[in-house]
């Protein structure tokens, strides 16, 4: 058996708000609540299992989603329609811009719990990386 990521737990103040936010942006569905978790499944079978925790115990995490060009366009449109601030860089110093790393497009935005979300149309190459300030 090869090793694959199956799921990860995402802490949120309000698990439904955060799960629905991400599902809406990415064009996914929120799954059926299972115990304390509310899952959002990606097309490669990985689920983000949202769990409610006190806000002060949330540690900001980063989640990157590889999407097609068409999915990027749709997600980007939903981000703009919702008035969500987006950035070209993970340090959030370039608001209102997207990046073009590895010949694709990418952007960063925050979810309601403050986690850094990223959508990219090309996987990050294992070779040369773009400058760290972009």
Briefly, what is this?
The chain has 134 residues and is α/β, with parallel strands linked by helices. The protein has helices at residues 15-26, 69-81; strands at residues 7-12, 37-41, 47-52, 62-66, 86-87, 106-110, 116-120.
What does this structure look like?
The structure is a single chain. The chain is an alpha/beta fold. 19% of the residues lie in helices and 25% in strands. The protein is built from 2 helices and 7 strands. It has a 4-stranded mixed beta sheet, covered by helices on one side. Strands 1-3-2 form a 3-stranded mixed beta sheet, covered by helices on one side. A hairpin with a 5-residue loop joins strand 6 and strand 7. The mean pLDDT is 94.
Annotation keywords:
alpha/beta, 4-stranded mixed β-sheet, 3-stranded mixed β-sheet
Q: Report the helical percentage.
A: 10-25%
Low-confidence stretches: none
Question: If you compute it from the alpha carbons, what radius of gyration comes out, rounded to the nearest whole angstrom?
Answer: 15 Å
Number of helices: 2
This entry's quaternary arrangement is single chain
What is the CA–CA distance across the termini? 37 Å
